[in-house]
Design brief:
The complex is a heterodimer of chains A (about 110) and B (about 110).
Chain A: E1 4-7, E2 10-13, E3 19-25, E4 32-38, E5 44-51, E6 57-58, E7 67-73, E8 76-81, E9 90-98, E10 101-104, E11 108-112
Chain B: E1 3-6, E2 11-14, E3 19-21, E4 23-26, E5 32-38, E6 44-50, E7 56-59, E8 62-65, E9 75-77, E10 86-93, E11 100-102, E12 106-111
Parallel strand pairs in B: 2-12
Antiparallel strand pairs in B: 1-4, 3-9, 5-6, 5-10, 7-8, 8-9, 10-11, 10-12
Classes of the chains: A mainly beta (about 110), B mainly beta (about 110).
């Protein structure tokens, strides 16, 4: 149990375009999901907390207009990187909470050309 | 605020060696403690957890004991395998707080 999926696993896009990443809890409902960013050989940086039915809470320094988060249902949160630039290239990972434990998705590798 | 200090890597061991990765924490109250493992190109997988003092988490031969007196949660395994090569993250969540605070991660490489 407690499986989290992400789609797509890899995406390459041109600079200036927008990219949507989906995070789903497959066998449980999650009122709270989290979005992280991970740079090569570094730890995870929390970007935002996604709350079902309400606005996301962003960490300091994260641009909410650039990283749009929507948590439309108890099993789906989406992260949209708007007007992507090469510096947005990174590994994005989501997680969802079940029984006071965070379970992570497999990650999405975004490359912006 | 809460913080996690983790043994810096990389760590390289021979197969069947004994493994210890140190982790200490600073937190108010009674946090829950976790070890996550990340294989190349993948997300994080929960390896084990402990939610109160003296609890021992265990999974796949790995163990860690929640030591409140030393604020530690060291990861151990008696005999490592090549397939254990990965990055290991120690993390905590504060009481009543779902957010995780991560250590910097320790890259482990096991050579045959």
């Amino acid at each position: 149990g407690a499986v989290v999926s992400q789609h797509p696993s890899r995406v390459i896009c041109k600079s200036g375009t927008s990219v949507k990443i989906e995070c789903r809890s497959l066998d449980f409902q999650a009122t709270t999901m989290f979005w992280y960013r991970q740079f090569p050989k570094q730890s995870l940086m929390l970007m935002a907390t996604s709350n079902e039915g309400s606005k996301a809470t962003y960490e300091q320094g994260v641009e909410k207009d650039k990283f749009l988060i929507n948590h439309a249902s108890l099993t789906l949160s989406t992260l949209t990187v708007t007007s992507a630039h090469p510096e947005d290239s990174s590994f994005y990972i989501c997680s969802a909470t079940s029984s006071n434990t965070q379970y992570f998705g497999p990650g999405t590798r975004l490359t912006v050309l | 605020g809460d913080s996690v200090t983790q043994m810096e890597g990389p760590v390289t061991l021979s197969e069947e060696a004994f493994l210890t990765i140190n982790c200490t924490y600073t937190a108010t109250g009674y946090p829950s403690l976790f070890w996550y493992v990340q294989y190349p190109g993948e997300g994080l997988q929960l390896l084990l957890k402990a939610t109160k003092a003296d609890d021992k988490g265990s999974n796949k031969g790995f163990e860690a004991t929640y030591r409140k007196e030393t604020t530690s949660f060291h990861l151990e395994k008696g005999s490592v395998q090549v397939s254990d090569s990965a990055v290991y993250f120690c993390a905590l969540s504060g009481f009543g707080n779902e957010k995780l605070t991560f250590g910097t991660g320790t890259r482990l490489t096991i050579i045959p």
